[in-house]
Structure formats: C-alpha cells, structure tokens
Design a protein that fits this description.
The structure is a homotrimer. Chain A is mainly alpha-helical. The first copy, chain A, has eight helices and no strands. In chain A, helix 1 packs parallel to helix 6. Chains A, B, C: It is found in: Cell membrane.
Chain lengths: 204, 204, 204
C-alpha cells in the first residue's frame, strides 16, 4: 500500500471524482471558471491536506506531487464545460464518490498509523481524509456541510477506518484485506443511498 | 502545568463543556447524530488542533490522546439525547464554558511559550486556543462566529494570555498564579455576561 | 529576497492593506471592535499562515514576528474608527490591495521553492498566499469567497507564481525580476478592474 502504480491510479481516480463533486457544487453556485477549479481542488485534496498537516508530512501530497493537482484541475474544468451532460451521469458520480470515500479512508488511516498516531487518532484522521474535502467544499459554497446533515456517510468512513486500524494491529493489513475494506465501505455507502438509510435527528 | 493528573481532569472538563456547546448548536440546526458528534468534536478540540499545528506538536493532542476525542464524543452524544433537559441547565453551561475559556487559554499560551514562540505570538496562540473551537463551531453551522459579534469573550482570553505570558517571563508561572489567571478570566467573563458588557460597534 | 529592510517594509504594507480590507468587510457586517480586529488579522496573515503550515515553517511568521500582528491590528483598528472617511479612499485601497496581491504571491512562491516544494506545488502555494487571506475573510463574514465569484484575481496570482517559479528555475530570481513580477501582477489586476474583465461562468 506504499505507492505502487495501481494504487496511484486508484488514488488519482478518487481525486478526479471528488474534484468533480466540488466542481459540480461550484457550477450550481454560479462561480466562475477559476472558482470552479478552486472548489474542485479543495474538495479533491482538502482531506489529504488536513491529514498531511496533522501527521506533519512535508510538503503535503497536494503540493508535493503535481499529478494530484493537475488531475483535480482537469476534472474540474471538464465539469465546467460538460456539466449539462454530467447531470445525466449522476448515478455514475455517486458510485465513484462512494469508491473514493472508501479509498481515501483506507489510505488516510494507514498513513496516520505509519506516522505513529495511536489507534483512536488514526481512525479519526482516516475518517477526516475521507470526508474533509466534502466539508471544505460545502463551507466554500456557503452551505452547512451535507455530511453533517443526512445520509450514512461519515459513519461508513469511521467504521472502515476502525476496520483498517484493527487489521493493521493484527498485522493483517495486506493489499487484499485493505482492498476488501475499501470495497466494503463503498458497498455500505451505496446500500445506504439505495435504501435511504439516515442517522437519527434529535427530537425538538 | 505539564500534564499532572488534576490538570488532565480539568482539561477534559473543558473539552466536555466545549463539546456540549458545539453539540447544542448542531442540535439546533437539526443535524443528525453524526453531525452533532462532529461539531462537538471540532468545538472541543479545534482550538487545540490549530495550536498544535502552529507549534508543530505531532500528532496533535486531539489525535494523539484518545481520552480527548472520547470525552468530546461522549459529551456530544449526551447532549443529543438529553438536550431538552439541558436547556434548563443553560446557566450551568455558561459557567462551565467560562471555566473552559480560562483553562484553554492558560494551557494554550504556556504550550506556545514552551515551543519557543515569542511573547506576542504566544498571546495570540493562547487566545486562539480558547476561542478557536467556538469559531469553527459557528462556521460549520453556517453562522458568523458569535465571538466576533457581541460580548466580551475573546478580549478576556487575550488579556489572560498576556497575563500568563508576563508571569512566565517573570518566572512566576507556578500552579497557583496560573490557576488564579484562569479563575480571573472565568470571573471577568461571567461578570461581562451578568452586566451585559459588550465591545463597541462602529457607527455606520 | 531574504528579509532585507525594504522587503520587510513592503511586506508590512501588504499586511496593513489586507488587514484594512478585512476590517472593512467586518465593519460592514456590524461586528464589534474585537471582531473587526480578528477578521483584519486573519485577512492579513491567513494566507501566510497557511503557507507556513504547509512548508512547516515553525512558528509561522504571523506568530513568530510581532511586527506582523501589530501592523494588522493597528490597521484594523484604524479602519474601525475612520471607516466613513476610508470609503472615499476606495480607489486607493483597491490600488494597495493589488500591490499586496503581487507582493504576497512573489514571497509565498519563493518561500515554497526554498522549502523544497516542486514547481507545481510552489505555484499553488504562492497563489494561496496571495488569495488565502481574502478567502478566510469572506468565510468569517458569512460570504461565498468573492475571489471565486467574479473578477480576474486569483488567475493573476497563479500566473505571477508561475513566472516567479520559472525565473527561479532559470536562476534569474534577483531583486529586479521579482519586483517586476510583482509590479506586473499589480498592473494586470488593476487593468482587469478598470476594464471589468471577468472569468467565464458556466452556462446553466
């Protein structure tokens, strides 16, 4: 899980998908081309940036590896020009978004554990890597973060991060178990969407 | 002031109180259970997280010591389920919030000084440790931070941070003077609430 | 470019100008005196703080050199008391703001390159140093960041950061070329204001 070619490709797919979600939100708010690129960049790389700041990885991946930034910007620009067609691809985007959530949570948790963060902290950092970009996207576009309002989303990330931490503690964090963890998060997230599961809201 | 048992207990009380304030705000915005926990976590640990990023304490306490995160989450969940009763406890919460402000400002200022930050910077970091969580809470729930709008709140933190810095420079920063500083901040904050003191607003 | 006296003076002018822009926005939102100072501080020093966190400069300049914080606060307080007169100075403020944008982008890019960040990342960090304070100012006052919505602003910073990176790679980053880069950014920004250039918005 330390940067093989297939992992890089998968990681960049996650970046592209999250960038597309940010760019779509920015287009809906009538931001200009730069604003769309900026919100896409933050949505794709904000979670990882927070993770790298917290574990003191210098420079953060978002600035240290140009492929991440370029992927995020290209995906955002594509959404800017293609967004009418993309609306019809909404189901695909939700699928890819769920895949990105699983992947980012796995890599975030692993990087935190490798940096010596204790178990509970690593779970939190993994979860924040998965959901941080979406929170930043919503703050930039003037919304209360959607991840805090409805749907089973962050809970999936937290559960997945706990599973990865457990695997790592048991020295079972090989490629296959980790891939299965990411796939399980993606599956639960899609099931939650399909079944309209949502977390409880306090009675007034 | 370097992590004795009584300090830890006091610190965790501060965490619980600030988490409760964040969770209360999140419940009022109709966020779900996870959202309430998340806003509570950020309100309780956001100020300290910013402090640790700035002084390069790795990993930040919010992720490095599980007792902080667990305390924040438990307090938030308690507010989620008990909030109708808690409304009646509003006076108690304001008292505890004032106590948390004093304590967090003292520890934030000391940690910055110990990390070699110069005096003016340490005062600012101490103040941000005290008020940062509340600012993050308000941003997440879509409000202009209340600390910027009314009440004597941040000024109390800034004055207290200056007092702690002065004590430290005079080599008088023993447990008793520090406890008195925290208590003085708490007292001034409560007096400001009781007397409805507020900072001036510019004439239009 | 490593801290000569004239650079420090120019840097502090940039801090004062950005602080004034933040304080003006805070006055318009009816924040109190402290809130005005806080928003001014964040607008002036937020971009540099993010830069220093990312390149791991400890403590960040905003906390490590008291002249920065004091300049930001004094400029904010001046705006608080003088803002009716300052409205008439709007053209001057826009001119100074454009100058600050050029200067901050140049120093941010150079610091990132000196810290070993690769070229693409250094461009992004330079741009964020120039625009970060304005983004934070707008988030704190409950607005969608204006830099994302209209005007040629961030694009100027990005282009200037790319020019500085190129100069640095060609070992031509002496005082004169860097000053010309900053001046060019300022000029393009002013021209964009005067001619009302703006970036495209997606068709609905």
């Amino acid at each position: 899980m330390t940067g093989g070619y297939s992992l890089l490709v998968a990681d960049l797919i996650g970046v592209a998908v999250f960038a597309a979600s940010g760019a779509g939100a920015a287009v809906a708010k009538r931001l200009d081309l730069f604003g769309v690129g900026f919100v896409g960049f933050v949505a794709a790389l904000g979670g990882g940036l927070l993770r790298d700041l917290v574990i003191d990885a210098v420079p953060p991946l978002a600035f240290g590896d140009w492929r991440y930034a370029v992927t995020a910007v290209c995906a955002s620009v594509a959404v800017f020009y293609l967004h009418p067609q993309l609306n019809r691809l909404r189901r695909t985007v939700l699928l890819l978004d769920a895949a990105g959530l699983g992947l980012f949570t796995v890599t975030g948790t692993l990087k935190a554990l490798e940096a010596g963060v204790p178990a509970v902290g690593a779970c939190l950092i993994g979860m924040l890597t998965g959901i941080g970009g979406g929170v930043a996207r919503d703050l930039l576009t003037g919304e209360i973060p959607v991840v805090l309002q409805r749907d089973i989303y962050a809970v999936v990330a937290l559960g997945g991060a706990a599973a990865v931490t457990l695997l790592s503690r048991l020295e079972l964090a090989g490629p296959l178990p980790l891939a299965l963890s990411a796939a399980a998060m993606t599956g639960v997230r899609l099931l939650a969407l399909y079944r309209r599961w949502s977390a409880p809201v306090a009675v007034p």
